[in-house]
């Protein structure tokens, strides 16, 4: 190697050797009378690239596109030629209509649904896919329904019935399922439509149907049919590497890819896997991190991926298409609050950037209101008035959403229409809504997604003759299904490496190939016979996935081909998965084992960026202006103590995690209900004498009144009122029971008390901070000393009051700094937890309250010797926390891992990256965080 580069001579030699393997085939495709039919699209594309390379080496700059087509595309081309030849007479000459996969699946579903009473099924759509495959297998293996006579398994009988109905329907409507295309072509094609020579490239086996088509039909019409496969490389070297797990395996493969490309940038690298769809997402993520490390620091087009993964995703998973579906659902019906939130945050709507903050505020506002779902008119109102919070109003989206809702055709939504007509309604609705947005330019991947979405809408038109007129709900389901079933992958720039399934890889040659995931469960693939055909027949006919023996034999051929399709082949497997040991595939167990290459070197970001990277730790925010009141009251001290960054983010950046709407009031709201009901109770009852004067009946009556008032106040106005009423009825019972138990406990208090403060606002001076606090309750005891009480609906313990970073410093704050209350004799949690209602208190004298302890009786290791000394210790700790907050201390430093569990700021503080993802999960598994 010279200067880190691969010697030119070796590169040329290697390219030449690979090219030689294709030479004979490529030489012949320049002949216009020759057609190459490939087993899949990947091989066709690859041969086109090789051909262009060959012509360039030969010094050509212009050439005719060679005739290389994947098999399915060629058959469809022949059919189109027939349609064009017969033109308007096509129907007259009995040319049937070729069904695409969506139409065919819908037709099967219709047949199954029409006979639900005879063969009831929960999911006709799922059954339709299996039945369609069974019908296709029969045609491809040149078998008929008569061959199934005598087999009376329920699924086989159902299939025979549905298939007969489907055949009759196709005959009546003049439909041609794609699995019958070759048979139909065989009776219609003529020599002028055919090449003189046809080369079948990359086929390991042909179905009996295609065997007959090529070697009987075409040869009878004078076509010379040949087969071609890339030769095995005699000097190929293969080795096997065990890895600790999938992530390690993918990392090893990608780091090896990176090193190989650095060594030889022109190399053609393959990564193959028996289960590519299952690993596609982690592979995609890691490929950016390892092959394009600079993408973290520079804007890159997502379509310009470093690894071309031959596993598309459903179109509906792509954000632009996802948001189009979402927009339609919101225009045409109720939507959950989570969907409303996603709609509001969409960048594919007009003003998505300009109004982003308002829309985010509205999302947070709607979640806080506790709504589960919204109707379109409710959402339109919320867009106008910000759901009662003016800064959250969204005038631009209001205008566009209003325009979409007020369109004339909204009046006709109850009609049934053909899918093509619904496609028009959907398209116009999205246009009025302003999808795909107007305040930023789409990147290449988004452009392609928008185009694919348009094709999806057009495909609805093809469903007209299959489904007939349908209602809005069905039409939206059809569109959703088309978007779900459309396997989509945006074209990008020329990727440096290719990832593909094993069958795809087996037809090609590479400069280097890494095969991941070679465990015995995945390769050979386990048998998976079709449930609608008799198993004995599938085995007898040697259908795919019918038996373990067939799969093993087939996989052996493929494996042998893969191990000799590149000068160097690496096979890897994971030795375990979540503590479950895994075994290497027996088909590669003979290979020499090697350890994964030590690859301590990080991806060379600086080399890609062309500039040195600097890093620095930023734990210091600007100092807080002490003239201002401290934000957040006592919660600020808790956050500062739990984690300085949490306090900075929550109280200076005002960052909060969004609430997750659930069914019914969440724990926070239920806690508020209990607080408010007790607040009302004590405003009327006032003291221990007032409580003692109530007999059981009177006490219950007062509780019922207080709870009723609180719940009446909380009733939502507008569309959710009926639902809230039902929910609060349930809540009423819970609260009455809770308050009854709690007040029974208060009746046990030996020392008389007067409730002198409820929701008491105080301003506390803590070091440099002015802190506004609101105390749940202050009781004045017999000696005129104050007891501060804080209600808690969860488990609580005074253990969190002690130490240099107290986990729960709220009551220490009140006890130590609420000087205007006079002498304070103690602090108490009022634990309002159903079944566990009690005080948890520390006082100067333990008999003041049930559950109270004198400080000296407690075992907390960090407590002071006396109550007065403890108050001073709390002052010192809290002033230190106040100083740290005011100075801008903002280190990501959780007091313990469990502090992060319910914090919700992980995406902002990136604590997982700081700790390392593995360390974080280990802590949780140890139970440390629970
Ligand atoms: S998630 Fe953890 S580290 Fe991050 S701010 Fe919250 S407590 Fe601190």
TrEMBL record:
GO MF annotation list: helicase activity
Pfam families to which the protein is assigned, alphabetical: PDDEXK_1 (PF12705)
Record domain PD-(D/E)XK endonuclease-like: where: 641-910
SUPFAM superfamilies: P-loop containing nucleoside triphosphate hydrolases (SSF52540)
InterPro entries registered for this protein in UniProt: DNA_repair_protein_predicted (IPR019925), P-loop_NTPase (IPR027417), PDDEXK-like_dom_sf (IPR011604), PDDEXK_AddAB-type (IPR038726)
Gene3D superfamilies attached to this UniProt entry: 3.90.320.10
Keywords, in A-Z order: ATP-binding, Helicase, Hydrolase, Nucleotide-binding
Protein name: Putative DNA helicase/exodeoxyribonuclease V subunit B
Native species: Magnetofaba australis IT-1
């Amino acid at each position: 190697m010279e200067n880190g580069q691969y010697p030119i001579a070796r590169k040329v030699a290697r390219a030449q050797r690979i090219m030689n393997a294709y030479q004979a085939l490529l030489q012949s495709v320049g002949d216009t009378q020759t057609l190459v039919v490939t087993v899949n699209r990947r091989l066709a594309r690859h041969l086109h690239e090789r051909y262009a390379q060959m012509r360039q080496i030969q010094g050509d700059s212009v050439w005719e596109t060679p005739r290389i087509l994947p098999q399915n595309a060629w058959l469809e081309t022949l059919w189109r030629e027939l349609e064009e030849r017969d033109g308007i007479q096509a129907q007259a000459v009995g040319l049937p209509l070729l069904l695409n996969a969506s139409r065919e699946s819908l037709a099967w579903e219709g047949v199954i649904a029409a006979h639900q009473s005879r063969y009831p099924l929960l999911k006709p759509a799922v059954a339709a896919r299996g039945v369609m495959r069974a019908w296709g297998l029969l045609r491809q293996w040149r078998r008929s329904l008569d061959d199934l006579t005598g087999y009376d398994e329920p699924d086989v009988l159902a299939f025979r019935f549905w298939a007969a109905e489907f055949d009759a329907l196709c005959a009546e409507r003049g439909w041609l399922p794609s699995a019958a295309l070759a048979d139909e072509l065989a009776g219609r094609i003529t020599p002028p439509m055919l090449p003189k020579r046809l080369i079948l490239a990359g086929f390991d086996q042909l179905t009996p149907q295609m065997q007959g088509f090529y070697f009987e039909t075409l040869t009878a019409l004078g076509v010379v049919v040949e087969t071609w496969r890339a030769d095995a490389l005699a000097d190929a070297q293969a080795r096997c590497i065990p890895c600790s797990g999938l992530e390690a395996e993918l990392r090893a493969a990608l780091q090896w890819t990176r090193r190989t490309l650095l060594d030889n940038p022109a190399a053609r690298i393959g990564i193959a896997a028996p289960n590519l769809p299952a690993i596609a997402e982690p592979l995609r993520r890691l490929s950016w991190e390892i092959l394009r490390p600079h993408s973290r620091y520079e804007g890159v087009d997502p379509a310009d991926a470093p690894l071309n993964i031959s596993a598309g995703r459903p179109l509906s998973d792509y954000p632009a298409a996802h948001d189009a579906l979402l927009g339609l659902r919101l225009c045409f019906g109720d939507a959950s609050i989570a969907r409303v939130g996603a709609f509001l945050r969409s960048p594919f709507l007009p003003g998505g950037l300009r109004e982003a903050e308002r829309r985010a505020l509205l999302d947070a506002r709607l979640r806080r209101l506790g709504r589960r779902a919204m109707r379109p008119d409710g959402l339109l109102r919320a867009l106008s008035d910000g759901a009662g919070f003016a800064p959250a109003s969204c005038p631009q989206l209001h205008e566009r959403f209003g325009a979409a809702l007020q369109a004339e055709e909204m009046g006709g939504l109850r009609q049934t229409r053909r899918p093509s007509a619904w496609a028009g309604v959907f398209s116009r609705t999205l246009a009025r809504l302003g999808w795909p947005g107007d305040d930023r330019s789409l990147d290449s991947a988004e452009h392609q997604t928008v185009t694919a979405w348009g094709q999806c809408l057009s495909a609805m038109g093809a469903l007209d003759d299959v489904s007939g007129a349908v209602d809005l709900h069905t039409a939206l389901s059809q569109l959703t299904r088309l978007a779900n079933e459309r396997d989509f992958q945006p074209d990008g720039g020329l990727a440096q490496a290719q990832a593909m399934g094993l069958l795809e890889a087996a037809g090609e040659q590479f400069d280097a190939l890494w095969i991941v995931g070679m465990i015995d469960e995945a390769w050979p693939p386990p048998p998976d016979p079709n449930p609608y055909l008799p198993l004995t027949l599938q085995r007898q006919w040697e259908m795919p996935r019918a038996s373990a023996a067939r799969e093993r034999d087939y996989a052996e051929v493929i494996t042998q081909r893969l191990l000799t399709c590149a000068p160097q082949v690496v096979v890897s497997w994971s030795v375990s998965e979540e503590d479950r040991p895994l075994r290497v595939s027996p088909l590669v167990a003979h290979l020499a084992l090697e350890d994964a290459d030590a690859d301590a070197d990080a991806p060379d970001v600086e080399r890609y960026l062309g500039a040195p990277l600097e890093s620095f730790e930023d734990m210091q925010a600007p100092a807080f202006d002490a003239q201002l009141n401290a934000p957040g009251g006592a919660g600020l001290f808790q956050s500062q103590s739990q984690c300085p960054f949490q306090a900075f983010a929550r109280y200076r950046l005002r960052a909060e995690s969004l609430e997750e709407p659930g069914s019914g009031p969440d724990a926070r709201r239920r806690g508020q209900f209990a607080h408010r009901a007790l607040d009302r109770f004590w405003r009327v009852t006032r003291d221990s004498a007032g409580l003692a004067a109530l007999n059981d009946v009177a006490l219950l009556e007062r509780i019922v009144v207080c709870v009723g008032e609180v719940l009446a106040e909380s009733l939502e106005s507008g569309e959710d009122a009926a639902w809230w009423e039902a929910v609060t009825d349930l809540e009423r019972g819970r609260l009455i029971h809770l308050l009854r138990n709690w007040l029974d406990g208060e009746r046990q208090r030996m020392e008389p008390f007067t409730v002198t403060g409820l929701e008491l606002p105080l301003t506390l001076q803590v070091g440099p901070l002015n802190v506004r606090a609101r105390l749940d309750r202050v009781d004045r005891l017999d000696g005129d000393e104050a007891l501060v009480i804080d209600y808690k609906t969860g488990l609580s313990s005074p253990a969190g009051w002690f130490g240099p970073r107290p986990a729960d410093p709220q009551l220490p704050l009140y006890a130590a700094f609420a000087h205007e209350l006079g002498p304070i004799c103690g602090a108490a949690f009022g634990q309002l937890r159903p079944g566990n209602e009690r005080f948890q208190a520390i006082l100067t004298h333990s008999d003041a309250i049930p559950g109270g302890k004198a400080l000296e009786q407690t075992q907390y290791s960090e407590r002071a010797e006396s109550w007065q000394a403890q108050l001073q210790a709390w002052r010192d700790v809290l002033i230190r926390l106040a100083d740290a907050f005011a100075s801008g201390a903002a280190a990501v430093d959780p007091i313990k891992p469990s502090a992060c569990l319910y914090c919700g700021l992980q995406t902002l503080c990136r604590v997982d990256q700081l700790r390392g993802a593995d360390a974080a999960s280990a802590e949780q598994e140890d139970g440390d965080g629970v």
